[in-house]
Amino acid sequence: MDNQITFLDGLNKEQSKAVDHYEGPLLVVAGAGSGKTRALTHRIAHLISEYKVEPSEILAVTFTNKAAREMKDRLEILLAQKLAKIEFGQPFSTLKISIQSELRTRIYREVIKEIWIGTFHALFARLLRFDIEKYVDKEGLKWTRHFSIYDEKDALSLIKEIVTEDLQLDPKRFEPKKIRWAISNAKNKGILPDILEESAEGLRSRLTAKAYRVYRKALAANNALDFDDLLLLPVQLLQQSKETRDYWHKRFKHLLVDEYQDTNWTQYELIKLLVTNGEPPSSFKAWEGRSVFVVGDADQSIYSFRAADFRILMGFEQDFGANSKGNYDSNVVKLEENYRSTSNILEAANSLISNNKERIDKVLKATRSSGDLIKLTRCDDEIAEAEAVVHRIRLIDAANNNLNWSDVAILYRTNAQSRVIEESLVRWNIPYIVVGSLRFYDRREVKDILAYLKLLINPSDSVSLLRVLNVPKRGIGKTTIQKFTDAASQLGVTVWDIVTDPEAIRSLGGRSSKGLLEFREIIQELQSHLNSSGPAEIIRLALEKSGYIKELISIATDEAEERRRNLEELVNAALQYQEENEAGDLEGFLATAALASDADNKDSSLNRVTLMTLHSSKGLEFPIVCLVGMEQGLFPSYRSLDDPASLEEERRLCYVGLTRAKEKLCLFHANERRLWGGMREPAVSSIFLSEIPSELIEGDIPLSGGTVLRRDNRLERLTRVDRGSPSDVSKKSHDAPSNAVRRYSSGPAPGKKWSIGDVVIHSRFGRGEITHVFGSGEKISIAIKFIGMSPKILDPRLAPIKPIDEL
Ligand SMILES: Nc1ncnc2c1ncn2[C@@H]1O[C@H](COP(=O)(O)OP(=O)(O)OP(=O)(O)O)[C@@H](O)[C@H]1O
Ligand SMILES: [Mg+2]
C-alpha cells in the first residue's frame, strides 16, 4: 500500500482530522481560503476509498451547480490518480492521455455518477421524483412524479393571473412581485396558507394569504412546483412519514454540506430530517456508520435577505448532539491557515471583518508571503472607473507575459454596474463574460421549447400549454384561449382535457379548430417518442414538428438566426446532459434546465475576464480581483447605512470580495457616480476602505469613511492613480483598442511633443485640452479634458487624436 495515494496527502493536520472523521456530526468552522471546500472534497474520496462507503450512500450539498460540477471533476481526478497508482504503479500524469481518459471515464461511471452532489434544489427535486406521490397534503392537494418545475418567471406569471383574474385586484396596487415575495418568504419559513391566514392582519396581508392559497391550488392543478416547494415539500414529507425518513436515512449514510452559514430554515430542516428524526439522537449509537459533516464561515454569511441565518451554523453542535465521549466541543474542527491569499490581502480582510460586532473571533493566519500592496484607485466618475479598471488589467498583463484573462475577476455590488465596464472592455478588445446576465434558459425561444417538453411529460401544466398553444402561430386566437381556460376552471379539468376534447374543438369551428387539432397531433406524436428517444432527439423532433424552426428560418433576420442558434445550443445542452447522465431522461434534463443559474455557466476553459456580483463570487478564487464602486450608498448599500445589522452583512460581503483574491487586489471608487439612471452625484468613499490598514494600500490615500471628496483637484487624483507606464501596455498591439489601432497611422507622429494647454481633436470625444503630460518617449501618457466629459488618460501614440494646429 506504500506507493498508494491517501486522500490525507496535501492537507494539514486539522484538515486531515476532519477528513478522517468517520461517524457522528462534525462541524468545520474556518475563515475564507482555509481549505474547507478542499477538505470536504477529499473527505468524499476518503470515505469511499478508506472506509469503503458506497458512492450511492453519500450526499453532498454545494451552493451552486457550478460548484457541484467542479467538485465532481476534482473527485474524478483524485480517484483516477489513486487508480493509476494501483493499476499501473505510476503517477497519473505520466500515463498516456488515452489511458488517463479511460481511467477517468471508469471512475466517472462507477463512482462519481452514483454520488448525489448538487444544490439543495437539485438534490431535493431528485428526491421528490421518487417520493412526491407519498406526500399527504392538509388541503388534499396532490402532485405526481411528472411534476413541472416553474422558474421565477413562470411563478410570477401565475401570480399575476391570480391577482387580476381570480382575486380581481388592481395589479398596480397589489403588485404581483410583492405578493410573490411574501409567498416565497412564507414558504421559506415553512408557513402554509392556513397559518398565514390566521396571522394576517389588515386587508393587504389577508389578500396576500388568499393569493397564496389560490396560488398553491393552481400549482397543484398544473402539477407544478416552484423553487421554494422543492425544499418545503420534502420537509413536510420527511416530517410526516417516519417510513420515508427511515428509507432515506438508510440510503444516505454520509451527508456533507458546504457553505453551511448560508442555509435557511427549510434547508436546515432538510439536513436535520435526513440525518435525525428531528431531535438530536439520544445516544451516539444512532450514528453507527453515519455522519453529518458541514463546513462554513459565519463571516461569509451574505444571504440573510433570502432568509439564511448564520445562527444555524452556531447551533450545529446542539442540534446534532454530543459525540461518543458525551461532549460537544470535539465535534468542531477549526482551520486557521489561509492558503489562498498573499498576507497583505489576508491582513486587509481580517482587519476589515474585525469591525463587525456580531461574530465569533477566530484566527486566520497567512501561509503565503506578503505579496503586492493593495492598489486603490480613485476615479472621476463611473466611466473613468471603468477605464481605470481596464487600464489596471492591461498594466498587469503587460508586466506578466502570460496573464490569462480568466485569471481576472471584476466584482461589483449591483448588476447595473457592469454596463460601463463592459463598454471599456469592448473598447480594449478584452474578452469577458458577465455572470448573472440573462440566463440561457430564460431566452424566449428556449423557454418556448422547454414549455413544449414540459407539456409532453405533464399535460396538466397549463402555464406551459398556454405559452405554446399558438406558438408558432396556428390561428388560435385570444378569445378561444380565454374560452378554454374559463371552461377548464368551471368544469374543474385541465386546459389540456379541453384541448383534447373533440366536442369542445368542434364547437369552435373554423380556423381555431384546425389549429387546435394540429396542436394536439403535434403533442401526441411527440409523446409517442418519449419512451424510445433521449432528450436531445425529442428536442429536435419538437423543433421540427412544432414548426418552430421553419418559422425562424422563414423570418431570416439576424435575430431569428441568433434564436435558431440558441436552439441548436439547447440540443447540445441536452446531448451533454445525456453524456453525463447515462439514464438521462427528459424529466431530469428539464429539472437541470429549470435549476441552472447563469453563475453556473462560467466556463473556466474559456480565456475571459469574469464580471460578477460579489454575491456570485462566493467560494471562488482568482489570481487578480478588481473590486469597483467602493462608495457609501453603493457598497455598503444605501439601505444598510442606518441599520447596523445590514451594515455588518455588507461588511461580510466585502470580506468575501477581498478574500477571493490570490495575488493582486485592486480597489476602485469614484468621485461622482450616476446611479439608478439619475444625475451624477458626488460620491463618498466607502467606510470599508477606511477599515483596511493604510500601510497595506498604495495609490490613493485611504480616507476615513464618510469623507466627501472635494471636487477641485480630482483630475490630479485620477492621474496620480493611473500613472503606471502606458507604454508597456501598448507593446502588446493585439489588445490595444481596435479603433485606436486602425487610426494609429493617421494619428500624430510618434515623436510628437505634447504640452499642457494644447488643444486636440479626438475622433470620438471631440475637442479637448491637455491638462497633464506624464513621462516622455515610450512612456508618455496625457490627460485631456474633453468638453462635457470627465478627463481621460490616453496614450497619444495610440489614441485617435490630432493637435488642432495640424488640422
Ligand atoms: N493544506 C493545503 N495546502 C495547500 N493548499 C491548500 C490546502 N488547503 C487548501 N488549499 C488551497 O487553498 C485554496 C482555498 O481552499 P478552499 O477553496 O478549499 O478554501 P475555503 O475554506 O473553502 O474558502 P472559502 O471560504 O472562500 O470557500 C485553494 O486553492 C486550495 O487548493
Ligand atoms: Mg469554500
Describe the structure in your own words.
By secondary structure, the protein is an alpha/beta fold. It folds into 5 domains: 13-122 and 240-335, P-loop containing nucleotide triphosphate hydrolases (Rossmann fold, 3-Layer(aba) Sandwich); 132-236, Orthogonal Bundle (Arc Repressor Mutant, subunit A), CATH 1.10.10.160; 343-439 and 602-706, 3-Layer(aba) Sandwich (Rossmann fold); 440-590, PCRA, domain 4 (Orthogonal Bundle), CATH 1.10.486; 758-803. Helices cover 45% and strands 13% of the residues. The strands form 6 sheets. A 7-stranded parallel β-sheet has the order 13-14-12-15-16-11-19. A 6-stranded parallel β-sheet has the order 3-2-6-7-1-8, sandwiched between helices. A hairpin with a 5-residue loop joins strand 22 (781-786) and strand 23 (792-794). Helix 6 packs across helix 7. Mean pLDDT is 86; it is low at 701-747. Bound molecules: adenosine-5'-triphosphate and magnesium ion (MG). Magnesium ion is lined by residues 36-37, 258, 619. Adenosine-5'-triphosphate binds next to helix 2.
Topology summary:
Blueprint: H1 13-20, E1 24-30, H2 36-49, E2 58-61, H3 65-88, H4 97-110, E3 116-118, H5 120-131, E4 148-150, H6 152-166, H7 176-188, H8 193-199, H9 202-221, E5 224-226, H10 227-240, H11 242-251, E6 254-257, H12 265-275, E7 291-296, H13 311-314, H14 316-320, E8 332-335, E9 337-338, H15 343-353, E10 365-366, E11 374-379, H16 382-399, E12 408-412, H17 418-427, E13 432-434, H18 444-457, H19 462-468, H20 478-491, H21 495-499, H22 502-508, H23 510-527, H24 535-545, H25 548-555, H26 558-580, H27 586-595, E14 609-613, E15 622-627, H28 644-658, E16 661-670, E17 672-674, E18 680-682, H29 687-690, E19 697-699, H30 714-722, H31 726-730, H32 738-743, E20 759-762, E21 766-774, E22 781-786, E23 792-794, E24 801-803
Parallel strand pairs: 1-7, 1-8, 2-3, 2-6, 4-5, 6-7, 9-10, 11-16, 11-19, 12-14, 12-15, 13-14, 15-16
Antiparallel strand pairs: 17-18, 20-21, 20-24, 21-22, 22-23
The site of adenosine-5'-triphosphate has 19 residues, from helix 2.
